[in-house]
Amino acid sequence: MPLFIKESFIYKLFEKLLIIPYNNSLLKKNLQKITDCFKNSFLYKRVEKYLDKKPYFLNSMYYKLIRKLVSKIDKLMDFLHKTIKKCLLGSSTFFELRSVKYSTKEKNLLLISTLVSAFNLAYTITNVFLDKTNYYATSGLLLISIILFLFSKNTNCFKNSFIYKIFKSW
User: Fold this and answer.
1) What is the rounded distance in angstroms from the CA atom of residue 17 to the CA atom of residue 12?
2) Residues 108-158 pLDDT 10s
């Protein structure tokens, strides 16, 4: 314990009123005897032995098989991560995404259009596999991405649009 705490008035008062009397008390001696008896008891030894035992599943064949399978998958995922990272670092998409914070509104609209198109593609492919195709949502996302792309190519059209004027007035 730090010296500034030991020399404080509150600690000295606490020590004289509680700690020293408790250390010399009959209650502490009796509690110590009870804990010693409990530690020597049959129940305590059984519980301690149960808690300290090696788990049974560590020797299981299924557990070893799962660990080997997970280690193989981990190595495969590490290889894929390194390969994809190496491929993406040299791509123009990586440089475009990196330069988003320095880009203009037109490039931001083009980026948002690309992201909405990618989401639409993933949504459509997922729904085809699940047999739950929602043509309204798919066509709506496609329309939004086309509008964003056109606005990114012609910003004058975007600035003269009715929707832009409404949002600008807010």
Assistant:
1) 9
2) 677 777 788 888 888 888 777 777 777 777 788 788 887 777 777 776 766
Spell out where 56-139 has E strands: none
The answer to whether the predicted template modeling score (pTM) of the entire model surpasses 0.70 is no
**Per-residue pLDDT averaged across 7-30, rounded?**
90
Say how far apart CA 145 and CA 148 lie, in whole Å: 5
Note the pLDDT tens digit of each residue in 74-105. 999 999 999 888 887 877 767 766 666 566 66
Count CA atoms closer than 13 A to 51's CA, side-chain side. 6
Contacts of 85 (CB under 8 A, 6+ apart): none
Both tokens assigned to 18: 């509680």
Under a CB-based contact definition with an 8 Å cutoff, are residues 123 and 141 in contact? yes
Q: How many CB atoms lie within 10 A of CB 120?
A: 19
